[in-house]
Amino acid sequence: MPTQIALSKKEYVYRTLKEEIVSGALEPDERLVIDEVSQRLGTSAIPVREALQQLRADGFVVIEPYTGVRVAPISAGIIEEVFALLEAAEIISSRIACRYLTDADFAQIETILRRMDENAASGDLAGWTEDNRELHLFICDRAGLSLLPVMLSMLLTHWSRFCHFYLYDVIARRIQTAQAEHWALLETLRTRDASAVAKLIQRHNRGALEDYQRYLQTRARPATDGV
What does pTM read for this prediction? Predict the structure, then answer.
């Protein structure tokens, strides 16, 4: 949990609640009562209300008139939306970044990928997921853009939330494929062929989304007795 030192009360509440939502400590559709949250976090109701408004803007909670606040649900639709936005953000940033990446940058990407290989081999899915986030944000940062890294960071935070609830099973099954695609991305970035980079990212993201969609369909399918 974030410490309150050097943070405004609103930022402290925001970070704490977002961390609890992403980690699964607060579950989808769970109701949030302002007085209960303020008492638990040791603040007044005002910073809680302000933090909840920001969490709503970022897609982590839903605020409904006469109903109150609840943690945002996770659906197949929102997963598809996040993947579509991730694909767009990663293609835009990588097409630009491939013009400017230095030998030192390529070495740093390789270091991250080797760490991801180690996590994949040991079954450390949480560590692999964190390194995956670092990889994509590192490439995005090298594009030199201002808004896109912020957007990509938020999208990857939503993806981390999905993983906590539903998708670690998919990651475990496709982690070797994902790693092969990440290494291919590095080699394609070295060529500075922006079109080839875009095609690889599109194939990587859409392949992953199809696997996740199949998994969610399987979870939603009721069991049939006697079969």
Answer: 0.88
